[in-house]
From TrEMBL:
<feature type="binding site">
    <location>
        <position position="104"/>
    </location>
    <ligand>
        <name>D-ribulose 5-phosphate</name>
    </ligand>
</feature>
<feature type="binding site">
    <location>
        <begin position="71"/>
        <end position="75"/>
    </location>
    <ligand>
        <name>D-ribulose 5-phosphate</name>
    </ligand>
</feature>
<feature type="binding site">
    <location>
        <begin position="13"/>
        <end position="14"/>
    </location>
    <ligand>
        <name>D-ribulose 5-phosphate</name>
    </ligand>
</feature>
<dbReference type="GO" id="GO:0019316">
    <property type="term" value="P:D-allose catabolic process"/>
</dbReference>
<comment type="similarity">
    <text>Belongs to the LacAB/RpiB family.</text>
</comment>
<dbReference type="InterPro" id="IPR036569">
    <property type="entry name" value="RpiB_LacA_LacB_sf"/>
</dbReference>
<feature type="active site" description="Proton donor">
    <location>
        <position position="103"/>
    </location>
</feature>
<feature type="active site" description="Proton acceptor">
    <location>
        <position position="70"/>
    </location>
</feature>
<feature type="binding site">
    <location>
        <position position="137"/>
    </location>
    <ligand>
        <name>D-ribulose 5-phosphate</name>
    </ligand>
</feature>
<dbReference type="GO" id="GO:0004751">
    <property type="term" value="F:ribose-5-phosphate isomerase activity"/>
</dbReference>
<feature type="binding site">
    <location>
        <position position="141"/>
    </location>
    <ligand>
        <name>D-ribulose 5-phosphate</name>
    </ligand>
</feature>
<feature type="binding site">
    <location>
        <position position="114"/>
    </location>
    <ligand>
        <name>D-ribulose 5-phosphate</name>
    </ligand>
</feature>
<keyword id="KW-0413">Isomerase</keyword>
<protein>
    <submittedName>
        <fullName>Ribose 5-phosphate isomerase</fullName>
    </submittedName>
</protein>
<dbReference type="InterPro" id="IPR004785">
    <property type="entry name" value="RpiB"/>
</dbReference>
<dbReference type="InterPro" id="IPR003500">
    <property type="entry name" value="RpiB_LacA_LacB"/>
</dbReference>
<dbReference type="GO" id="GO:0009052">
    <property type="term" value="P:pentose-phosphate shunt, non-oxidative branch"/>
</dbReference>
Length: 148
């Protein structure tokens, strides 16, 4: 349940840039603004260089939510989760994309480009955007996540 008033922050490394571009185009077609933090080609890059600015954009409130893509999505998830205000969830199917929103109030979805096809990635983003945090017993757990 994200507003179109703020842009979506998106970033990827060399393994995920094609998915990033496809997801950004999909979001723009749906009327969302997109803040693209790169990368924009297949040359080898370091995923933290793109995950940190994407996460910072979400953490600061400049972006409604974020999308990060790399080969396994582990590197970008680990990096984004270093930001205290971020709850980045690694998703490989729509059920997990729903659960990271419902139970963990995730504000960044991390997608493993080497393990899901682009249609699955789009479907996961759709579910992620449309799913609300359940609160209740999950709110107490989420409140205990940050070390700050």
């Amino acid at each position: 349940m994200f507003s179109k008033e703020l842009p979506v922050a998106i970033g990827a490394d060399h393994a995920g840039f094609e998915y990033k571009d496809a997801l950004a185009a999909y979001l723009r077609d749906k009327g969302f603004q997109v803040k693209d933090f790169g990368t924009n080609g297949p040359a080898s890059v370091d995923y933290p260089d793109f995950a940190h600015p994407t996460a910072q954009s979400v953490a600061s409130g400049e972006a409604a939510f974020g999308i990060l893509v790399c080969g396994s999505a582990n590197g970008v998830a680990i990096t984004a989760n270093k930001h205290a205000e971020i709850r980045a969830g690694l998703c490989w199917n729509t059920e997990v994309a729903s659960l990271v929103r419902q139970h963990n109030d995730a504000n960044i979805i991390c997608i493993p480009a080497r393990f899901v096809d682009i249609q699955t990635a789009i479907s996961m983003v759709e579910i992620f955007m449309a799913t609300a945090f359940e609160g209740g017993r999950h709110a107490n757990r989420v409140a205990k996540i940050s070390c700050n």
